[in-house]
Amino acid sequence: MLTALLPLLAIVRFASAIAWGVILDQTATQGNEWTSLQFTITIPPAPPAAVTTGPWFFWAGLQPGLYCGSLGVLQPVLQWSEYSTCATNDGPAFPEVWQLVQWTVPSVNHNGNQSSVSCGIWAAAGDLISNNVTFSNGLWTQTSTVVSGQAKGASATQTVQASDFFCSPTANFFLMESELYGDAIADWNFPVQFTDVTLTAQTSTGVSALCASQKSFSDGNGNATLSGYTLSTDQRTCKWTSVTLLPP
C-alpha cells in the first residue's frame, strides 16, 4: 500500500516519469524559499482497458530538505490503481477510477519514517480539483476541493507540523511529475493538464530570472508543455496558465 512508499513515491519500484522542477538556490537567492503552491488539475480519462498493472501517479508538490540532504515532499497526488484507505465521498455516482490523495512524505528519520496520508477524493473524468499547499507559522497545510464536475464540493485538508516531518521546514524545490509503474507504461495515451499553476516565494530575490527561464521540454519519458507565464507586481509569485504533461 501507499503507506510503505518513500520519497518521491519511487524508491522501491522502478518508475517512468516526465518531471519538471524549479529550484530556488539558497546561495543565489539569499536563502529564499517557496511558501505556497496552487494548481488545478483536470481529471483525465481512465487508462486504456489493456492497462492492468500500476499504479499511476500525477502530481505537483513542494519538497523541503533539499539543502540538508534529506528530501521530503508535500504533494496532492492524482492516483490510479492504489488508493487511500478512506475517501471523503464514498460511493460516488461514477466509477471509482481516479482518487486525489494528499501526501506528506517525511525526511529520513523524521516522523518515524511514516508518511501522513489524507483520505482520498474520488473524481470523475473532466472534474476540476483545486489544490493549495501553504506554509505558515511552522505548519504546512494542503487543501484540495473539487470545484467543477460530478464530484463538485468534495474536499480534503491535511495540516502537519513542519519540524516533525522535515530536516528543514521550508521548501526550495518545486516538482511536477507523471510517475508510472507497471507493465504497460507505454500505453499512457492521454494528456494531464494542470492550470493556474502558481508558486509564491518568501521574497522576490532570484524569482523573476528563475521562473522566466522555464521552458517546455521533453525528457524521453514524456513532454511538459508550459504556457501563459506571468510574474506578480511584487515579483514573488510566478504563474503559468497551463502546464500539460503528455506521453512520449
Which helices and strands, and how do they pair?
Elements (H helix, E strand, L loop, with lengths): L18 E5 L10 E9 L13 E9 L8 E8 L17 E8 L10 E2 L3 E3 L4 E9 L2 E10 L6 E7 H4 L5 E10 L11 E10 L5 H6 L4 E2 L4 E9 L5 E10 L2
Antiparallel strand pairs: 1-11, 2-8, 2-12, 3-4, 3-11, 4-5, 5-6, 5-7, 8-9, 9-10, 12-15, 13-14, 14-15
Protein name: Concanavalin A-like lectin/glucanase
Keywords: Signal
Spatial extent as radius of gyration: 17 Å
Provide the spatial order of strands within the biggest beta sheet. Answer: 10-9-8-2-12-15-14-13
Major sheet size, sense and barrel closure: 8 strands, antiparallel
CATH architecture descriptor name:
Sandwich
Number of strands: 15
CATH class: Mainly Beta
Output the CATH topology.
Jelly Rolls
Oligomer: single chain
Spans of at least 5 consecutive residues with low confidence? 1-12
Mean pLDDT over the full residue set:
94
Order of helices and strands: EEEEEEEEEEHEEHEEE
What's the structural domain tally? 1
Q: Report the structural category.
A: mainly beta
- The helix tally amounts to 2
Overall shape: globular
Keywords: Signal
Protein name: Concanavalin A-like lectin/glucanase
Q: What does this protein look like?
A:
- The chain is mainly beta.
- The protein has a single domain, classed as Jelly Rolls, CATH 2.60.120.
- 4% of the residues lie in helices and 45% in strands.
- The chain contains 2 helices and 15 strands.
- It has helices at residues 162-165, 207-212; strands at residues 19-23, 34-42, 56-64, 73-80, 98-105, 116-117, 121-123, 128-136, 139-148, 155-161, 171-180, 192-201, 217-218, 223-231, 237-246.
- The strands form 2 sheets. Strands 10-9-8-2-12-15-14-13 form an 8-stranded antiparallel beta sheet. Strands 1, 3, 4, 5, 6, 7 and 11 form a 7-stranded antiparallel beta sheet that branches.
- Residues 1-12 have low confidence and may be disordered.
- Residues 1-17 form the signal peptide.
- It comes from Calocera viscosa (strain TUFC12733).
- Keywords: Signal.
- This is Concanavalin A-like lectin/glucanase.
